[in-house]
Amino acid sequence: MDSEAVQLGLPITRTAAPAEGMPAMSAAADRCSRATTAAGPDALAPGASVLMDGAGDPKEGTVSVNTNAGTVKLNRTAYEYAQELIRAGHRVIDDRDAWSEHQPSAEQENEFIAEHGWTAYGRWHLGVDREQNRETKGHYKFPYGDFRDVHRCGVLAAESRAGQRDYRDIELAAAHLHGMLDEGGERA
What is the mean pLDDT of residues 8-15? Predict the structure, then answer.
């Protein structure tokens, strides 16, 4: 798998203590461990670690989250397309719970795929499952719109589900889109 980390502006928190029988930590890891215990045991997300500077000391105020959990990854093309749509005014500012009513039906999805193809269909999904065939609906995850507009409710649903499933890259992308929608479509 490719190694990708997302830098977040979170306070440094903790690292796990080595398991019994494991070799002693390096001096840099020891400094990192001592520097990160203050915030408590539950402050760091699963899979997160502290970023180190060139001297092996923890960087102030940052953690790294490994985004390689599983095979579902951020669909950068869809993320960029959603940003373009929002900037162009193709957005619906609706209630959080409206997605079940606004999400395209299976029939609408099939019609869209038949008319526009799988690539166009993929631009409406923030995640892709790399283990699934590109020409199946199972390849595409986290829809955010109705093939015309970005729906706030769809972005919120994607943000929430990605967070629950620990897909940090998708969660952060959806959170950014959410912010753009709440700002009226213009990114400051």
Answer: 34
The pTM of the full predicted model, rounded to 2 decimals, is 0.63
What whole-number distance in Å separates Cα of residue 79 and Cα of residue 126?
6
SS3 for 90-112 is CEECCCHHHHHHHCCCHHHHHHH
Cβ atoms of 151 and 144 closer than 8 Å: yes
Helix or strand holding residue 34 (H, E): helix 27-35
Place of tokens 């409206």: 98
User: How many residues appear in the chain?
Assistant: 188
Confidence (pLDDT) at 17: 41
- pLDDT (tens digit per residue) in 109-128: 999 999 999 999 999 999 99
Torsion angle in degrees (nearest 10) through CA of 92, 120, 123, 137: 100
